[in-house]
């Protein structure tokens, strides 16, 4: 299970364990964003610390209806005890965990300040 808490401004936040090129773990927090169909967004300092490789760019439709182009990197993270490779879009915002990352999982959120956030493997 992956755990977190609902923030004081009602954002569900979980801790993610990212792996750098040497296999060392770097812990970061990410907001669960069910309106984001990608895997992750990460700011440049985190991508640099991971030694992540840029694999291209991707166009995305944002919530305000505008189109944006994001550089995309390949990263590794621990996911239910396994190492998983996912794409992470470069973003200047707080890291986001999207629906592609959660696919095949079950999300439980106690929707109140300080409430539990839990991600379970499905099955």
Explain what you see.
The chain has 123 residues and is mainly beta. Helix content is 9%, strand content 55%. It is built from 2 helices and 10 strands. A 6-stranded mixed β-barrel has the order 2-3-8-4-7-6. A hairpin with a 5-residue loop joins strand 5 (53-61) and strand 6 (67-79). The longest helix is centred in the middle third of the chain and has 7 residues, at 44-50.
Given helix and strand content, the structural type is: mainly beta
**What order do the strands of the largest sheet run in, or round the barrel if closed?**
2-3-8-4-7-6
Major sheet attributes:
6 strands, mixed, barrel
Low-confidence stretches: none
Portion of residues in beta strands equals: over 45%
Number of strands: 10
Summed up:
The chain has 123 residues and is mainly beta.
List its salient traits.
123 residues, mainly beta, six-stranded mixed barrel, 2 helices, 10 strands
Which SSEs are present, and which pair or pack?
Blueprint: E1 2-6, E2 12-19, E3 25-32, E4 40-42, H1 44-50, E5 53-61, E6 67-79, E7 82-90, E8 96-97, H2 99-102, E9 105-109, E10 116-121
Parallel strand pairs: 3-8, 4-7
Antiparallel strand pairs: 1-2, 1-10, 2-3, 2-6, 4-8, 5-6, 6-7, 9-10
């Amino acid at each position: 299970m992956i755990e977190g808490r609902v923030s004081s401004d009602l954002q569900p936040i979980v801790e993610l364990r990212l792996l750098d090129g040497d296999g060392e773990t770097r812990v970061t927090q990410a907001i669960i964003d069910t309106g984001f169909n990608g895997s992750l967004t990460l700011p440049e300092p985190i991508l640099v610390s991971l030694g992540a490789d840029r694999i291209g760019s991707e166009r995305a439709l944002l919530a305000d209806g505008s189109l944006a182009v994001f550089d995309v990197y390949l990263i590794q993270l621990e996911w239910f005890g396994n190492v998983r490779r996912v794409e992470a879009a470069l973003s200047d915002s707080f890291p986001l965990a999207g629906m592609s990352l959660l696919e095949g999982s079950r999300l439980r959120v106690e929707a109140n300040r300080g409430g539990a956030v839990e991600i379970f493997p499905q099955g």
